[in-house]
Amino acid sequence: QVQLVESGGGLVQAGGSLRLSCAASGLTVSSNHMGWFRQTPGKEREFVALITRSGDSLYYGDSVKGRFTISRDNAKNTMYLQMSSLKPEDTAVYSCAATRRSIGTYDYWGQGTQVTVSS
To answer: What is the CA radius of gyration of the chain?
Structure first.
């Protein structure tokens, strides 16, 4: 059974930092394209970042480029999202996702973790 469990969310002041974790079980992060997404009520889910299964390619949404960094630890089978220079508009539920198929066709999702950035 595949499980993706996010952690690390919380309340932070604008300009601060947080690191989110996505711990995987039932799949190997290095064999999957892994991504982070976020969503706020009333809005569509937004792409945040992606690390390809090879680990060679990283992609970011325009709104987070230069501030967020995606990474993974194969030994811990965990993916991370380091978020810096946080803004109130980064407030959302952040979820991780995985796929062994092509990028964009995610098969597995975590339950999400809330990130709230106060001004």
So the answer is: 13
